[in-house]
Write the structure tokens for this entry.
Amino acid sequence: MRAVNLSYNITGQGLLRTYMYPYTTELYEFLTKFKYDTKFHSTKQLGAIQYLLRGAHHTRYEYIFLQWTLIHQLKDKAKGLGLNSNNVSTDGLFLPNIGKNPTGSEILQCLALLTNMGHFPDTFSASKVWLHLLRKNFRNLRTGLKRGLQDEEKYLLDDMISNFDTYNIHLINALFLLERYRRVDGGNEIIDFSKKLIIEYINNENEQLKKYWKIYKSIRKIAYVLMDSHYAPIPFNLELSSIVLNLDHYQDSLIDSSSAFQKALEQMNIVLENSLYLDPNSLLVSNMRSEQISYKLGSLPIKEKIDKISVIRDLLEPLNEKSDGISAIFQKQDILSFPQPDWDINNVLDITYNEIDYYQSIFPIDTWEFERELTEALGVNSCRVSAAYPPSRKNFRLVFSIKNNVADTKKIYKALDITKQAIELDLDFKERGFQNNNQAEDEFKAKIFKYLLKYSFGFEKEYVLDYPITKKVNNVPLFFGRGSVNVSNLIQKYIDDVKDNLSTDQVHELKVVRDRIRDLNYRGLILAFLGSTKIRKANETTFSCEFDGIVYLPYRKKEEFLFVIEAKNKPNGSTEAKAQLKKRLKQHLPKTFDYQIDDLGNKAACASIFSKSK
């Protein structure tokens, strides 16, 4: 059997030409019998993200084709990698029909097919629901899946469930499905070869093959960066032609994880994670799709035995003319029926916990269960929550949002509920041993504060938390705590630390906020910022508003929840402060809120803000 010449026009990359080698051809033709060619051509690679970024999307086949192209170019240009050699003699990696051992390039091309066949169309949105169901053995689903796996594969499944490995569970799906195809003519040899290849890839223990897995992971990452960079606002532009021309220069770097090339590639991948794959709204649309899939599965009649191998096959296999409603739960994509995002996409609270390598046991394992628990605590009809780890599991990401059906007059109170939940969760992580550095702590508090400011003064504005930096103290003067006495004491300690480096007017502003908090005589949660809160309207070049102090009381629902303080350290300062507050609140406070301005009697004034519907 000879290599097959192929060409394909990929948007953004142009007309690509490559070869499909004999082993790859044999495998692809076999999978075509079960509609995998249709699945590859019809499935959008970015999964649920397609519902957020509507329009043209690359298919899974285009990613596979690009990987084949890179593999072929690497085989021709990088002679030292052994991709032309067929001296791989691992037991089971052989097709009698072809009559020779596979070359390194054939192993890589076949792997590109096999690592894509088990993916759900909605990728990780579906994978986390699937893993959750397996973990809970929902209606004996895990028991049924194991009946369709061989012993070694069962251990691999158990390991992925215990680690809640959403990024690799599709490989178990592939193993299960391949086993179902043995009865086809010539199936045994292809199934044995394919399953052996997947298992070796998962285990990564065969010294003869480790080099190829490193090469494949590099090629896969290059393909993702080339294709997906078109969907994300990233500060770089890669060209396939440039990469192909220089492949021979990178042959050693492809298998050296410490090389400058690999480090640069990883940095680009991280940018894509932050701006596309794990972007806050991408995570929320993933949650939305997971919710739909979970609901459909939960709605199946009890008489539907989902622990049967034939039913599990229907859940995992590509759609065909005989597919029924069960098959469509995981496998059907229908962009036209997918609604617009049902949350405030312009204001979400996204929190990232970095450097969690040594705290894995503190953070949730089952992210779908975690999302559901938080959503139920906040209100399933009013909030959407999503959580995720990147493949490296070096950080944990959490996103909260308010649904569009919540009345504008009530959104601030729901936002306060969300901040309470986020702060309580943060305290729980810390009580269980997680340690954050000061910069991360400041970022956490600043995100929460700006999230509330947007619901208080408008989404379309820019908010800057400005504050003096001294040699002794450079932390953001954001104070979160319970009780007026506790928080005012924290503020006093801050004043003692910075007063020698501040002007008399600046110290006066801090003392005014401290005294106002103490006078509240409040025992609940208090959030206070003692710097300058600057507000700039859209399309304006200068800040049109500045407040000396802002205090939130998240547990307040029927009373004033927000206090804005203005200090004027001069004669008649209270009068001027009241006038300035009135003017600025009139400019920036939405009509859904009202306020009362009080003279603090200490060259300052305070506006107590509440909802008109209270």
The chain has a mean pLDDT of 91. The first helix runs from residue 22 to 32. The first strand starts at residue 4 and ends at 10. Residues 264 and 548 are 43 Å apart (CA to CA).
